[in-house]
Amino acid sequence: MADPTLVQSIRRDAMPLHQASDYDAIVDAIGDSRIVLLGEASHGTSEFYTIRAEITKRLIERQGFRIIAIEGDWPSCYEINRWIKNYTGAAGSVRDALSAFGRWPTWMWANEEVEAFAQWLKAFNGKREGDDLVGFYGFDVYSLWESMEETIRYLRKTNSPELDHAIRAFECFEPYGRDEQSYGAAAAYALGESCEQEVIDLLRELRVRRMGEGIRDEEALSAVMNTLVAVDAEHYYRSMVRGGPESWNIRDRHMTEVMARMMDAYGDEAKIVVWAHNTHIGDARATDMADEGMVNVGQLARERFGADNVYAIGFGTYEGTVVAGRSWGAQPAKMRVPKAAEDSWEEAMHEAGVASGWLSFRGKDGEYDQHIGHRAIGVVYHPQYERFGNYVPSSMSARYDAFVFVDQTKALAPVVPEPVFA
């Protein structure tokens, strides 16, 4: 049973999320923050996506947010960006744009919940132009080869003087046959082989020549960002084979850097919404991640931009269903999410009677600062074992500014055939 005092505090402070007008209170609480981090406790829960979409719509309409950055690859997300902005040569339909998400786990972004949100974004942009368009971008680091290909495609299309440099730089990776693990092992252990300097030099050259126009020349900006991905992905895969926290830190530092560069590109008043897992957007210093030497976007954003400019909202559920894989690369399956563990944050929210609601932590540090288990479900999930590894000890009021909770949740709907229970 959860701590009765904690349950009583939640019951007193929780606010409902049952109808459209209830979301206005969240936007009011966000206030003048320029960076809003919207989490999720899994990558396969429908309500996490739909609630983030509702919050984001209001931030776009009421607060002037124009940048959306998600935990996805830049090249794949840029296809959505091109579609919602109606660029020449963009995908013919939203489903065609979503098909760009070919990297496992495809369901994470190629789902009906994102499809509906992208359609809303396209309709919103259809009434605007220029810098007032909303952009949709990926700020993750995995797309080493895809980003290199996109950079070369742009440089060839524009007959750019950097093309020969890019081809030479990326030829360094050819012996590894698009296998990140093979490259990482060779670069880390085999005679110190590395393509690092080649891609760093290319990034420097592109940045000097191409960043001046910012969002006004978004194709050039995309080429620079793809090269940044190549730089950091090279570092990430080289570090990953050694183990330890460094590859995680490289990834979250990259995410934070992409956020900063996109805000610079959009101008001094730019505002950004981020969609990523709780483990990225909740301040790592409020969890046991800090003891392991790990940082994350939530911590880095507060340090870089100032805590007053950042508003982080965690998400969670008590029980339901979720889409995940039994192993890395496995076919997606719909799985049961068991009732939350005893003495966990989710159990306390459930016992407080919160069916669908949210809780603000600002000004209430003393009541929600104790460390408590907080559930985190990844793309690989084993419900029968979750009590032994899926709960992160967290000081909730230090980790987040607010928390959204849905007691009973359901699996999201991939745009490919729906996964079966497994």
UniProtKB/TrEMBL annotation:
User: What domain of life?
Assistant: Bacteria
User: Which InterPro entries does UniProt cross-reference here?
Assistant: Emycin_Estase, Hydrolase/PRTase-associated, UCP036794_erythomycin
List, alphabetically, the Pfam families matched: Erythro_esteras
Q: Which SUPFAM superfamilies match?
A: EreA/ChaN-like (SSF159501)
Protein name as annotated? Erythromycin esterase family protein
